[in-house]
């Protein structure tokens, strides 16, 4: 899973596929591996949708996460109305902090891709606040980099300080995609 987070997607796909090929690998851990394999394929190569829809059939945490990941996949395919329909199945004020983070991250990406930058920034700010309150450096690194990139479009002056913190967090966790987003944010702010 860490290989996926740091951008080693071929390795992540290979390791997860190998684990899932072992007949004794069943149950919740197998479902979790399927979920991460689907997410890896979504951002790398391959079709995640069959895996995600299969996982979403079960009403548990993994199934819920699969529905969120399915909505992200729809965004990447350009189906913003489909992604919004999935997102609207969930209450925005959900108590579970990690799920609240994921839902607002989804809504932030959705509105970012729709060009509604202020709305996207509102959702990314909620994600950042949740991450901070939970003291999750990983989620804070993710949330802050999305927030500064989005604010570059509507609040360019608000990017300069937070982008340094976002870069520091993403560098500390060796999150290469995040470092790329941190590099883009000031350029967006300058040209926005």
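^ Assign residues to that structure.
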């Amino acid at each position: 899973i860490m290989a996926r987070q740091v951008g080693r997607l071929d390795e992540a796909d290979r390791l997860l596929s190998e684990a899932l090929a072992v007949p004794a690998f069943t149950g919740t851990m197998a479902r979790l591996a399927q979920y991460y394999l689907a997410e890896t394929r979504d951002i790398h190569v391959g079709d995640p949708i069959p895996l995600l829809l299969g996982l979403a059939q079960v009403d548990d945490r993994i199934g819920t996460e699969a529905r969120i990941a399915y909505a992200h996949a729809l965004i990447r395919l350009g189906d913003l109305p489909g992604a919004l329909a999935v997102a609207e199945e969930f209450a925005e004020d959900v108590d579970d902090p990690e799920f609240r983070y994921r839902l607002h991250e989804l809504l932030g990406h959705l509105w970012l891709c729709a060009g509604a930058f202020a709305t996207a920034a509102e959702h990314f700010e909620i994600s950042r606040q949740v991450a901070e309150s939970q003291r999750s450096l990983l989620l804070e690194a993710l949330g802050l980099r999305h927030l500064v990139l989005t604010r570059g479009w509507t609040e360019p002056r608000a990017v300069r300080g937070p982008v340094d913190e976002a870069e520091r967090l993403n560098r500390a966790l060796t999150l290469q995609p995040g470092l790329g987003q941190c590099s883009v944010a000031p350029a967006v702010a300058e040209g926005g």
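The first helix runs from residue 2 to 5.
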